[in-house]
Every structure is written in structure tokens, then in C-alpha cells.
Design brief:
Elements (H helix, E strand, L loop, with lengths): L4 H30 L13 E4 L1 E2 L9 E8 L7 E8 L6 E9 L11 E9 L6 E7 L12 E10 L2 E5 L3 E4 L2
Antiparallel strand pairs: 1-3, 2-9, 3-4, 4-7, 5-6, 5-8, 8-9, 8-10
């Protein structure tokens, strides 16, 4: 216990200063949260993770692989896609191709519009990742409000090795 009056006064003053500083910091944090714009997910199309499977004619191995499709519909980024391969052919370069079915959400009716995407380079273990970020200007106005089908394919040397099933994607 502090017995000297000056020590007691100094201890009291130090506590007051610290409490004021903590209060100011708490107010600043609350103001920062109040004025930070919220990140909103897409209300029409929710994030999807869809598996990649080997195409029957493929000789390339694959332990697992998947595509993640995230639609932010923001002013800078409209969509962000991620591509992942695990246990594919080591030290290989794969190219991702989006096969768009603008007339069919089930990918049953053409035409098919092929859209090249990113390259995946695998490491010595056959693991590789890539992504694609598209701005809003990359989505044609004619597709806004439409639900289309997409099949993602992963090609090596121009030959499909893996692909997803058909995913219905709503564009807003």
C-alpha cells in the first residue's frame, strides 16, 4: 500500500490518465466500426465450391481438386474464382477453361462459349493453385440478371484432364 501522500497522488493521477486513454481508444474503435462500409455477400448467387474430377480419357493423376466461385458484385471486383489441384501431375502447367452455357442453367443446351481463365502450375508434389478476379465490366450487360450453366475444365497441352459438373450461376 502506498503510504506517502505524493506517491498516492501520483498513483491516482496515473490511473486517471490510463483510464482516459483507454476510454479514448474504445471510442475511436467504435467510431471506426461505425464508419467502415459493410462487406455484403451476393444476395442472388452464394459462394460455391465444386469438385474437379478426372475425365475418363485422362491419364493424369488427381487426389482432389476443386473450384471456388465467389461473387462479390462490388464496384471493383465482380467475381473471384480459385482453382486448386492436389496430387495432379508434378511440375505441370494446366490451363483452366470456363465453358459457359448462356441458354441453359443445366448445361444441356448450347451454344457453349469457351472462356480461357488462369494457368495452374503444379509443384513437385502435383499441388497447384491459381485464381481469376473479374471486374464488373467483364460481364456483358446481356448476361446481367441471367442464370447460366458453367462447367470448368482443366486442360494440359490443350487436352481436358479434369472438370466439374454443371453449376448454375446467377448473374446480377
Amino acid at each position: 500500500m502506498l503510504s506517502h501522500p505524493r506517491a498516492q497522488a501520483l498513483f491516482h493521477w496515473t490511473n486517471v490518465v490510463m483510464l482516459r486513454a483507454l476510454f479514448a481508444l474504445a471510442v475511436a474503435a467504435l467510431l471506426a466500426l461505425a464508419f467502415t462500409p459493410a462487406a455484403h455477400a451476393d444476395a442472388v448467387f452464394h459462394t460455391v465450391q465444386t469438385p474437379l474430377a478426372r475425365i475418363s480419357a485422362s491419364s493424369d493423376p488427381l487426389q482432389s481438386g476443386w473450384v471456388v466461385d465467389v461473387h462479390m458484385n462490388g464496384p471493383v471486383n465482380y467475381t473471384h474464382e480459385e482453382y486448386h489441384l492436389v496430387g495432379a501431375l508434378p511440375n505441370a502447367t494446366y490451363n483452366v477453361l470456363l465453358n459457359l452455357y448462356p441458354a441453359s442453367a443445366t448445361c444441356a443446351v448450347g451454344p457453349v462459349v469457351p472462356v480461357p481463365s488462369s494457368a495452374i502450375v503444379t509443384n513437385i508434389s502435383g499441388n497447384g493453385n491459381a485464381d481469376l478476379v473479374l471486374p464488373p465490366s467483364a460481364v456483358p450487360p446481356s448476361l446481367r440478371g441471367a442464370t447460366i450453366g458453367i462447367i470448368w475444365q482443366v486442360l494440359r497441352g490443350g487436352v481436358p484432364q479434369y472438370q466439374t459438373g454443371c453449376v448454375a450461376v446467377s448473374l446480377d
